[in-house]
Write a structure and sequence with these properties.
By secondary structure, the protein is mostly beta strands. The chain is built from one helix and five strands. This is Cold-shock protein.
């Protein structure tokens, strides 16, 4: 994965969302088809690894999104 970020928003009806890069910057759009686990809908705040692409000078898009375990998730799993 080239980048990591957290889901800022996701609209299940439209199948589109935004991910906020961990290193800062503007949120990046993605579509459900670019999720590696399409059956599971992303939740706000969930951490994903992703790559970016830019087509014909448009704003960057995130693709190849894969869920990642963040430090908070690992800590809660170790406690439980």
């Amino acid at each position: 994965m080239s980048h990591y970020g957290n889901i800022k928003s996701y609209d299940a009806n439209k199948g589109r969302g935004m991910i906020s890069p961990e290193k800062g910057g503007e949120p990046i759009a993605f579509v459900k088809a670019d999720l590696q686990q399409e059956a599971a809908e992303p939740k706000q705040g969930q951490r994903f690894g992703y790559e970016t692409r830019q087509v014909d000078g448009a704003k960057p898009e995130a693709f190849n999104l894969q869920p990642q375990q963040g430090q908070r998730e690992q800590a809660s799993q170790q406690q439980g």
